[in-house]
Amino acid sequence: MMLLTGRNCKIVQHLNICKRQSVALFCSSIEMGTQIERVVRMISDHPFPDQPLRPTLQRQIPPTALSPPFVENVLGSLFGAHTNGLKAYEFFKYCLDCKLYVPSSGAFDKTLHILARMRYLHKAWELLEDIRRSHPSLLTLKSMSIMLSRIAKSQSYEVTIEAFEKMEKDIFRGKKFGTNEFNVLLRAFCTQRQMKEARSVFHKMHPRFPPNTKTMNILLLGFKESGDITAVELFHHEMIRRGFKPNSVTYNIRIDVYCKKGCFGDALRLLEEMERAGFSPSLETITTLIHGAGVARNISKAKHLFEEILRRSLHPDTGAYNALLSSLVRSKDVHAAAQLMEEMEKRNIEHDNVTYHNMFLGLMRSDGIDGVSALYTKMVKKNFVPKTRTVVMLMKFFCQNSRVDLGLDLWNYLVEKGHCPHSHSLDLLVTALCARGRVEESIACSKQMLERGRLVSERVFQMLERLLVEMGESEKLEELECLIQKLKQLLPSRPADNMNDRI
């Protein structure tokens, strides 16, 4: 009996230990989330460029806190918050200098993406060089894709080709480039809808880099993004003529272009052809078709396709729900769309920016400011931060409907979350505030933008300059001008005319 009791005690003790470990793990994950938010806000709020960031990082972030997930999440949040690229770069460099920290490819890619997106291409090349010397294993096809895509977007065809050659000869030195790297270069042009350039690269380089089915699908995707159904079908025939067999990705691309153009019947015929060829439609395929049914205003078919997901033993995700919600909004059934949002909550399927954006669009057309403000309040209570497109749309709607108080609330909410709102949002807000004589608040918002390392537009400055001159507030105008001039010295200039300046 004593033996049995002792054994039971050990079992209970073991269960208690497991329970404590589980609670500790849960608490640590909550604590990490809180710390990530704190660090993001600290970096975003740091006065830039008046004070160096490094001393603040040393005081506020101990080296022991720099785990790979922590650093990657901070950088991901800084990316989403549109924080000035130099601040994110400084944070990553601080992490690299800590001996206990082992960098991940995710953290490196996010830093590179932040720099490239803000056109800090010189700094982006500097980072690539540093990583090549210190952590070459972090250099991947993804990092190459990030860099080439941004260069293709802002620079010429020749500069993009030279950048690819620099990658091969210098950054990825010792690695033999093949079809995978060739595909990355092609994708850089295709994602920017530069199909003339993509074709030129293909004809120039395919003898050296034998294309595969993925190569052809990338080109097909490029024609799809340009919205030309004829070009898609012509290239599809060329693909077959060259001996490449279409796969499920090929069918999904073709179905998508027909759906986006409202040719829903053709998309359904392609679905039948896809199944006859032995390819089972994926969740992505069905989601695309639901969206296509919405574009064609065929809401009954959209609902039928949504039910088809379960019949095919697939599990609907946020994307599938968004496709149906968008279809309902297009058919002006906003009440059903709201019910669908509630269903998502009940099934623990997260609302994302597309969910909110589509719902806001529907409410703007049906319920007006009351419906939009109600959903906005719910969104804020859930601590959800919308993306730039939705922020600008909301700011415009609030200001045009004489609810500048909600516009200012949205601005403050984003800033408190460590985000730097888009300059177009500031244009809308400052215009509405100034029209109501609220110049002080306009200046405060503009200073918040500047202090976070982002320039205000010429329109905003001229508006504030005129009002401050009229008010005789020369000191405030000088302070604003000083902040702008300091920032202009650090922000990247427009694309240069020679290769050396650009890379």
From TrEMBL:
Keywords: Repeat. The keyword Repeat applies. PPR repeats lie at residues 212-246, 247-281, 282-316, 317-351, 352-386. InterPro entries: PPR_rpt. The keyword Iron-sulfur does not apply. It holds the Pfam family PPR_2. Belongs to the PPR family. P subfamily. PANTHER family: PENTATRICOPEPTIDE REPEAT-CONTAINING PROTEIN 3, MITOCHONDRIAL. This is Pentatricopeptide repeat-containing protein At3g61360. It comes from Salvia splendens.
